[in-house]
Amino acid sequence: MFENLTDRFDGIFGRLRGRGRLNEDDVDEALREIRLALLEADVNLDVVKNLVGRIRERAVGADLSKALNPAQQVVKIVLEELTASLGGQAMSLTYASKPPTVVLMAGLQGAGKTTNSAKLASWFKRQGRSPLLVGADLQRPAAVEQLRTLGSQISVPVFSEPSDPVEVARRSIEEASRTGRDVVIVDTAGRLAIDDELMAEVGRISGAVNPHYTFLVIDAMTGQDAVNTAAAFNETLELDGVILTKLDGDARGGAALSVKEVVGKPIAFASIGEKLDEFETFHPDRLASRILGMGDVETLIEKAEQVFEKEQAEQAASRLLDGTFTLEDFLEQMQQVKKMGPLGNLVGMMPGIPKEARGMEIDERRLARVEGMIRSMTPTERAQPELIDSSRRQRIAAGSGMQPSDVKSLLDQFGQMRKMMKQFAGFGTKKQSPKNRRGNNPKRGKKGGNRTGGGRTTPKGPAEVPKTPLSLPGLDADGLSDFGLR
């Protein structure tokens, strides 16, 4: 969503690099470009004015840190102020001392209330809670049935009955207490536009259940209309937070950057995909870091921790470093990485990725082909790839629908990776024997004797690292194209 804005910031900061000291002209030039970039991203005009004003106040005449060049100083200021505009810190939920904790979901029709109600229930389950979904949208055909289908996918019960929405919501609290459910999520009806009838019904439901949290679900693709919708709902319901959907889309992202300052309510959660597990707590600092092209290491680590077993990961790393990493290990690691989400999203979280790579599309079918070749091998061949000769390559290629040359390329690059990782693990680990230490060598000439110059057998400086690029199986020499980066 923020690729264009990230590219603009890259250009702005790139032009500041190499300047000796910031002056007002430098700051004004950068701020003009930042202002234009934010407006083009559909950020609210008042938010842009406030943000740019705060950046200018801090940047003009600022004493540069000795460790930072001017571009880094501006990046630091912009990062902090952008984080503040997005809400400062992640919203923390507390639970009712006397269960259940009630969450009311509101929003316009089509924003994704029903789907995100199920996503939120799945999130609560990951926190160790026992949620109950409530179908109080009795106007839209099959809305309750949709909620039941989603609930069955995450093993969360759904309560509803063909009566009045307010009565359904009220009785759901009794049902939760009876069944021992400690979180109730009420999915309400929406309209195509804000009207008095919509607000009146949501208001009555809110009065009946006294929710601990009221979340407004808004579509980030609608731009400033999303901000206006949030402001209107907040006047009636006193929102506690906003759930932004479709943050994985290609809209300009102005709603995400505007809603906190305009409405005064934080973004609580973000929906980053269509799957029910593609839903996460909104972290302003992490999004600001990604917008500025600095990656999002914390989210990447969290995703890895969710899918990788610590002991298995440590064992795989140990085998990789001592040269015993097998194709079976590699296949297992591929499966775990796929669980972390689309590779394109993971690339965007990595710091230091060039903007050319961030914007590229990754064809994950390439990974499937690599997986197919490995699965066409016998367990012995996966453990000992050196056993695979010409006839075995032909059999593997036929079984995976590939060419023998593709199998050979995979084996060659896997062998190269394993060899290089073993070399890296050995750097600096060899110890000198006592007889080879300085002053203990019996062959060293005595003082005053006939000595040859130096006696050094290796050149000065650190050991030279091989210049052959490291590439995973399935990558060709440029490290990208076999994965479908283009």
What descriptors fit this protein?
20 helices, alpha/beta, 434 Repressor (Amino-terminal Domain), flat, disordered C terminus, single chain, 486 residues, Four Helix Bundle (Hemerythrin (Met), subunit A), 8 strands, 8-stranded mixed beta sheet, Rossmann fold
What do you see in this structure?
The chain has helices at 3-16, 24-40, 45-59, 70-86, 113-126, 143-153, 165-179, 196-209, 224-237, 254-263, 284-291, 297-307, 310-321, 327-339, 343-349, 355-358, 365-375, 379-383, 390-400, 404-426, and strands spanning 101-106, 131-135, 158-159, 183-187, 213-219, 241-245, 267-271, 279-281. With 486 residues, it is of the alpha/beta class. The protein has three domains: 3-86, SRP54, nucleotide-binding domain (Four Helix Bundle (Hemerythrin (Met), subunit A), Up-down Bundle), CATH 1.20.120.140; 101-292, P-loop containing nucleotide triphosphate hydrolases (Rossmann fold), CATH 3.40.50; 306-425 and 479-483, 434 Repressor (Amino-terminal Domain). The chain is flat and about 75 Å long. 34% of the residues are buried. The model is unreliable at 428-486 (pLDDT under 50).
